[in-house]
Amino acid sequence: MNAFPLSPTQISDILSRLGYFRDLGPATLRNLAQGARQITVRRMESVFNKGDPAEALYVVVSGQVKLYLSQANRSEKVVALVNHGQSFGIASLWLGLPHAAHAMAKSDSHLLLVDRQTLIRQARQDSLLAECLMTDLSQRVMDLMHDLESCTPRSSLQRVSCFLLQHRPESGLGDYDILLTSTKRDIAAKLNLTQETLSRMFQHLSREGAIQVQGRLIRVLDSHKLAEINRLQCPPGEALSE
Amino acid sequence: MNAFPLSPTQISDILSRLGYFRDLGPATLRNLAQGARQITVRRMESVFNKGDPAEALYVVVSGQVKLYLSQANRSEKVVALVNHGQSFGIASLWLGLPHAAHAMAKSDSHLLLVDRQTLIRQARQDSLLAECLMTDLSQRVMDLMHDLESCTPRSSLQRVSCFLLQHRPESGLGDYDILLTSTKRDIAAKLNLTQETLSRMFQHLSREGAIQVQGRLIRVLDSHKLAEINRLQCPPGEALSE
DNA sequence: CGCGACTTTGAAGTAAATCAATGGGCGTGG
DNA sequence: CCACGCCCATTGATTTACTTCAAAGTCGCG
Fold first, then answer.
1. Which residues in chain B have their CB less than 8 angstroms from residue A192's CB?
2. Which of A207, A35, A192, A130 is nearest to B151 (CA)?
């Protein structure tokens, strides 16, 4: 986790290209950049731990960061996988509370850290920035709700089918592909399953002809059948075998 | 779910007494009141369903509202129990997305509905209101994280002890009481357990001398032992019996 | 007092975790 | 180019914690 000095101009440049910061005025961007710095984190390195004070907003410039709760069991619950252009740490930052989860780089990453005071001061001045942050927070709430939805059903088959259905493109009703954003182990942890169980469920759905698995690529062949399975909470036994 | 006409003055009065709206200027309050109306909902009546368009911010004036995901099993996952002075529906409102959960009154309730357009327009104008909403959203994110933390551990004993520890008053290290905000059935659903399992876990912790249960009142006698149990993921068997 | 909602208790079945071992993919280095 | 190690994924056998089903018990309240 090394500091990586960049000029404010470079930083404001990076900021302006980052998703929801796009609409901000140049003045705000410049001010934010003043209170920002970039760091690099190596794969598997910790960014912060649960309970650490929240001192900055983290924006992922490159790489991927995993947010997770550790369960003392040595099992962990993955809360989110944060990719390029997304941010994390905003909620605890705004409330001035310690972080509620651990953050760890899944691959070598560049992160932009926007200082707390700077961000809050700017948000008060620029209502456009406040809107950006609200949108981000709202999105996070929705994500967490979806997460709860997909990780709480009793049956593991339901959890998996629910997860697959959530990734259905909003437009079409037909088939679609999902490229897993992380290892199956982490996806399993997100669904509160073991990697073994996830593997078995994928197998089951494959046998049913609902999906097709090729490494990280999941091909959903029959989303209707998937929805059916999800509704019926069909146990992983033979119930739906033809 | 009946409309309940009140004068804008009355409404702005109610608003001003509601937690995070307290700091708002009278002008903003008046404007919000213009776009607000009050409804009454009877116990067990639905307020909105998952998938409904989000048209207003809901503020609980009296009563209690349960937000939950239904699992097709006929089991449900309680996402939140919203009490007097708290709001719900803000995330989907802001994003213009359909509601992500069902809302149902747990007791006869009065709700204040602030119209979407009104709220958004005011939030753009009054940065103080924007801050209120951000604080609310941040709080909701933190709540959801805590929820995930307490409903995802494998062992039900861990889930319960984690829940009890989360309600520890921030100040003291000593004993404390918890008055459950709803039925044990709903608390169980919040922890993703059945009421039966919750009952058994309470019993187990009682036998250990860690807690004492009197109806909805949980007396935590030995939070240290509780933390110990939580760390050790002690299975509900006889492991810790002396 | 007696009804309904909530809670507790018991017995049984099962889904998923755990343990353990093999297999595949990929990069490093001989 | 193959050999080795590492990590990820798969598969099988075993165990058990939790749900489910069923019934009795408690509480509050009209």
1. 152
2. A192
